[in-house]
Amino acid sequence: MTTEAKAPGGFGAVFAAVDPGNPDYELLRRIVGRLIPFGSHAGVEVTELGPDRAIAEIPDEPQLGNHMRTVHAGALFLAADIAGACAFVGAAVPALGSIGSFVLRDARISFRKPALGRIRAIGMLDPRDIRTVLAAAGDQRVEVDGRALMYDANDVLVGKVTLDYVCTMASEGA
After folding, report:
1. Helix or strand or coil: residue 96?
2. Is the pTM of this model over 0.70?
3. Is there a contact between 123 and 56 (Cβ–Cβ < 8 Å)?
4. Is residue 35 part of a domain?
5. pLDDT digits (tens, 9 = 90+) for 4-28
6. Where exactly are the transmembrane stretches of this chain (predicted)?
7. Which of 47, 62, 154, 171 lies at a 20 to 30 A Cα distance from 114?
8. Could you give the residue ranges of the DSSP H alpha helices within 92-139?
9. 118: exposed, middle or buried (C-beta count within 10 Å: 0-12, 13-18, 19+)?
10. What's the CA gap between 118 and 106, in Å, rounded?
């Protein structure tokens, strides 16, 4: 995370420029695109961010490959994690200012086919968990379940990831 993301006020402070009543999802997409330096280093790009899902893409670059000339599992996981986290940002817009932290606690990945070329990870969250986050009060901890589906350039499903996040609400008056 950048130093901006570690500013007083927690996770949500980074999104202070976003109007929760009329969210600019393109602005959100640009903000989250700068939050994860390792994602930027690997070339992962958030190409879509909205209230229901987010998409992160891995470029077709040889440095992201493995010894079998397929996309490395670490690159696939990175894109899935970023897509899931960005889906959270898009879904939780009305509560972003009240969120103290949002972290990945656990994940499980299932590789379905060899991942070749440009990969698109589509992140989605359980809507019931988002409703709980939107209704949460200060100091509350909320578990958020998500998933990411990864597709190659031919729209073939190459992997599925389950994501187990923890969201904590900022203390009242923090």
Report:
1. helix
2. yes
3. yes
4. yes
5. 334 445 788 888 889 999 999 999 9
6. 75-104
7. 47
8. 127-135
9. middle
10. 26
